[in-house]
From TrEMBL:
Keywords: Ribonucleoprotein, Ribosomal protein, RNA-binding, rRNA-binding. InterPro entries: Rbsml_uS13_C, Ribosomal_uS13, Ribosomal_uS13-like_H2TH, Ribosomal_uS13_CS. Located at the top of the head of the 30S subunit, it contacts several helices of the 16S rRNA. In the 70S ribosome it contacts the 23S rRNA (bridge B1a) and protein L5 of the 50S subunit (bridge B1b), connecting the 2 subunits; these bridges are implicated in subunit movement. Residues 138-170 are annotated as: Disordered. It comes from Nanobsidianus stetteri. Part of the 30S ribosomal subunit. Forms a loose heterodimer with protein S19. Forms two bridges to the 50S subunit in the 70S ribosome. Residues 156-170 have a biased composition (Basic and acidic residues). PANTHER family: 30S RIBOSOMAL PROTEIN S13/40S RIBOSOMAL PROTEIN S18, SMALL RIBOSOMAL SUBUNIT PROTEIN US13. The keyword Magnesium does not apply. This is Small ribosomal subunit protein uS13. Coiled coil: none annotated. It comes from the Archaea.
C-alpha cells in the first residue's frame, strides 16, 4: 500500500492508549509527529524540530515513550528556548506585554488569541472593528466571500418553488 505510514515500536515496550500532553489527549497508537500537530500552537515544522532536538524518532508510536521521555517532551513544548530551538520558530515573538519571545501551546495559546482580539476591539483599531462585525480582517474581498449561513431568497427545490408560487397566488 503506497503512502502508508510505517509505525515504529521499540522492542520490549508496551503501548499506552491515551497520552495527555499540555492538556490535550492524544492517541498513543499513532506517530509522534502526527499527534503533536493536534496540540494547539504546534505545527508540522515545530513538531519536527522538537523530535530532532530530543533525538526521538518522529515515526515512533507516541504511546511507546517512557514517562521520563514524555515529561521531557512536554517540557520542550512549554520551554523550547531551553532546548536550543531558535526564536524565529516561536509563535509569540516580542510579546506586547513584556517584550519576550515565548511559545504558547494548548489552552494558553487559545486564551491568548482571544485576549489579543479583545484588546484590538477595545482599542478600536481597524482590525478590532473587522473582528467585531465578523468581517475578513486581512484584506479579503467581502463581495463574494466570507458569507456564512444559508442563501436568502433562493429556493433550490422545484417542489418548494411550486409550493411558493401557489401560496403567492392565493
Amino acid at each position: 500500500m503506497p503512502g502508508a505510514l510505517k509505525l515504529i515500536i521499540p522492542e520490549g515496550r508496551t503501548l499506552k492508549d491515551v497520552i495527555r500532553i499540555v492538556g490535550v489527549e492524544l492517541d498513543g497508537h499513532k506517530p509522534i509527529i502526527i499527534e503533536l500537530r493536534k496540540v494547539p500552537g504546534v505545527n508540522w515544522r515545530f513538531a519536527n524540530a522538537i523530535c530532532n532536538v530530543l533525538k526521538i524518532n518522529k515515526w515512533q508510536a507516541l504511546g511507546s515513550l517512557t514517562d521520563e521521555e514524555l515529561e521531557k517532551l512536554e517540557d520542550c513544548l512549554k520551554r523550547p528556548q531551553n532546548y536550543g530551538i531558535p526564536s524565529w520558530m516561536l509563535n509569540r515573538r516580542k510579546d506586547p506585554r513584556d517584550g519576550q519571545d515565548k511559545h504558547l501551546v494548548g489552552p494558553d495559546e487559545e486564551i491568548q488569541v482571544k485576549m489579543d482580539i479583545k484588546r484590538e476591539i477595545e482599542l478600536n483599531t481597524w482590525r478590532g472593528n473587522r473582528h467585531m462585525y465578523n468581517l475578513p480582517v486581512r484584506g479579503q474581498r467581502t463581495r463574494s466571500h466570507h458569507r456564512k449561513g444559508s442563501t436568502v431568497g433562493v429556493v433550490k427545490n422545484k417542489e418548494l418553488r411550486a409550493q411558493q408560487k401557489s401560496e403567492n397566488k392565493e
